[in-house]
Amino acid sequence: MKNLPVIIDTDPGTDDAVALFVAKALNINVDTVVSVCGNVNGSYTHKNVVDLNSFLSLNANVLKGADQPLSGNGFTAEEVHGENGIGGVILPLAKDNAGNIEELHHTLKRLKRADVITLGPLTNIAYILKEHPEVKANINSLTIMGGGFEISNIPNNAEFNFGCDPEAIRTVLCSDIDITIVPLDVTHKIYLSKEEIKDICGFEIDKTDSSVYGVISEIMYYNYKTSIAKNDKGALIHDATAVLAYLFPEYFEGVYGDIFVDEFGATTFKSDGNIKVLFDVERDLVMEKLKKCFTKGY
Ligand code: RIB
Ligand code: CA
């Protein structure tokens, strides 16, 4: 059972939105959500964090994170997530009371010990570790969606989150924090067909409504359509998979080692290290948990 408060760093993003829904539905104690530029530009990812925090009743503190990677220009993925990052879905407008990224180290000190889950580029975490290295003592575990060993999704054999900010992930990987990497090699085993989406969330592709279940299923179907258009086998909910890997590590198999990250963010696994890299998953158990998220009283 996980009982530490959790900080989620995210770049919503259709699969990030599903991940935040899963975190709420499975009662993760989300203390703070931090926005980061990634899938779409920082103004949209931040708006999506603010609106999703309210719409999903996460009721977490919100911090506005980076609009640019530590180095380079970064890139976005509107072709996957839509112009606004959540498949064009318009959420009820929430008031933006976000603090700035400088507050993240105060948050970690206030919480004393917290688990961190990152669903976007590692820019914010790297920034805080550089500016306030002492906060390492407050991070109990760090679960990172990112990287890809046999699979890539951007040029130069890289994965999006690592490729957006290679310097940031390099900084985080050598921080000696208890890190679990959830790479594409695992998340691509959880792709969802249209039929599975309907089975999980109970909505046909064109019969959604404005409830949380209806909106999240609409976002999942959007992810399905753009994933298929990119010749993927179904909806890819990378970030929801990372949240489930945090909650149910027993469903996943991993190896310990180290990771070399090249200038494009491409990763090479090296044995002999303390970083846990997941490589396999009990797909049926994960699907059961996803379905459970849609059958609780939202
Ligand atoms: O490569 C997939 C990752 O990049 C996911 O987190 C997706 O949301 C994007 O951020
Ligand atoms: Ca993401």
What features would you highlight for this structure?
298 residues, alpha/beta, Inosine-uridine Nucleoside N-ribohydrolase, Chain A, ten-stranded mixed beta sheet, 12 helices, 10 strands, 18% strand, binds alpha-D-ribofuranose, binds calcium ion
Q: What does the model show?
A:
- The chain is an alpha/beta fold.
- It has twelve helices and ten strands.
- Helices cover 38% and strands 18% of the residues.
- Strands 4-3-2-1-5-6-7-10-8-9 form a ten-stranded mixed beta sheet, with helices on both faces.
- β3 (61-64), α3 (78-81) and β4 form a beta-alpha-beta unit.
- The longest helix is centred in the last third of the chain and has 18 residues, at 212-229.
- The radius of gyration is 17 Å and the shape is globular.
- The structure holds alpha-D-ribofuranose (RIB) and calcium ion.
- Alpha-D-ribofuranose (RIB) is lined by residues 11, 13, 15-16, 38-39, 119-120, 145, 153, 159-161, 238-239.
Please give the structural blueprint:
Elements: E1 6-10, H1 14-25, E2 30-35, H2 42-55, E3 61-64, H3 78-81, E4 99-100, H4 103-111, E5 114-118, H5 123-131, E6 139-145, H6 160-164, H7 166-173, E7 179-182, H8 184-187, H9 194-201, H10 212-229, H11 238-247, E8 252-261, E9 267-271, E10 275-281, H12 283-293
Parallel strand pairs: 1-2, 1-5, 2-3, 3-4, 5-6, 6-7, 7-10
Antiparallel strand pairs: 8-9, 8-10
Helix pairs in contact: 1-10, 1-11, 5-7, 9-10
Bound molecules: alpha-D-ribofuranose and calcium ion.
Calcium ion is lined by residues 10-11, 13, 15-16, 38-39, 119-120, 239.
